[in-house]
Amino acid sequence: MTAEDADLTIARFIDAPPAAVWQAWSRPEHLARWWIPAPIECRVVTLDLRPGGGFVTKMREDDGPFKPHLDACFLEVVPERRLAFTTALSAGWRPAEPWLLLTAIVTLEPERRGTRYAARVLHKSPADARRHETLGFHDGWGTVIDQLAALAPRLG
Mind spelling out the 3-state secondary structure of the chain? Predict the structure, then answer.
């Protein structure tokens, strides 16, 4: 068993330059449009793109109340290139107790006239990774990347 056994990865080509993909990531009004699989609605509560900055989103279905979705802390922010965030911490490096402990590393690499978008999600253990996979990691993260890929070419 290796550390890689606790990782899940997903990647897609997006037909938009990294600047447009970054714009979709870095503006709350854009992020709310793709961050959660439709028709679930997303509200971006906090998007403080700096190491130690908060990343908080809520979600709702069928006009119900907004419920917690993600409470995380950015670890690294390199505009148009790389983002890393973790659910182990909240804003200001405050320890958190998430329902699923993970660290996500998102990279944007220029490719032809577009972007190779990749996410590597690190878990505490292979068992946690398998649990996340069973809960629909590939379908969920794949759907939101598809939504991002539909939005990004219209930006920038």
Answer: CCHHHHEEEEEEEECCCHHHHHHHHHCHHHHHHHCCCCCCEEEEEEECCCCCCEEEEEEECCCCCCEEEEEEEEEEEECCCEEEEECCEEHHHEECCCCCCEEEEEEEEEECCEEEEEEEEEECCHHHHHHHHHCCHHHHHHHHHHHHHHHHHHCC
Bridge pairing between strands 7-14 and 114-123 = antiparallel
- pTM of the full structure: 0.94
Compute the radius of gyration of the chain from its Cα atoms.
15
pLDDT digits (tens, 9 = 90+) for 79-92: 999 999 999 999 99
